[in-house]
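Hi U.,

Before I forget, here's the chain from the pilot set. I'm dumping it here mostly so it's searchable later in email.
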Amino acid sequence: MRAIVVGGGKIGYYLVKALKEKKHQVVLIEKDIKICKKIAEELEIDVICGDGSDVEVLKDAEIEEAEVVAAVTGKDEENLVICQMAKVNFNIEETISRINNPKNTAIFEALGVDKTVCSTQVICNLIEGEFNSEPLKIIESINKGEMILVEAKIDKKSAWKDKSIGQLKIPKECVILSIIRDCKVVFPRGSVDIIEGDKVLIITNTDKKKEVENSIIGG
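Structure:
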């Protein structure tokens, strides 16, 4: 895969490093010449010093051959412009943008950015997950929030305790992916019983979350 990353801050640095380690072709675009030299020397990748929202700079990065463009600068407006240019001017199939202000997420999605990552929201979700008393803990949002990956911790009060997978009453839009038991994975076949202490990983439509919660607590 050939990817272009715009923004050489901490996120951009570790992103290009990870992509290179996975043997992908990656080009970094960064405005600061000192950062460009540092990353080029440390990671031995192609680095272009310039403005990622400049058409000519994107052409220098051979954007026409890229499959993915990731805009991860510290400015939301720049990231949006870069992703739109990649889509409109170069027909890039997959654009990914960092979002610093969670309020901008809907705007980015409405304007055609394929995937967005909001570090603020991710950290918020992690904090909420640690102190969340609800039966389901959201691990990740999928397909622009239409689906969610959740974790259910089975305690002695859970309605799922000592029931087999086949006995559970769950929405048809809900799939049990796996059961984590004593740090081991148990494959969720119909005859497998759920016991106290299990962590059950579930993927479901977002609008069915409450229904799944009610099934777990016996509501």
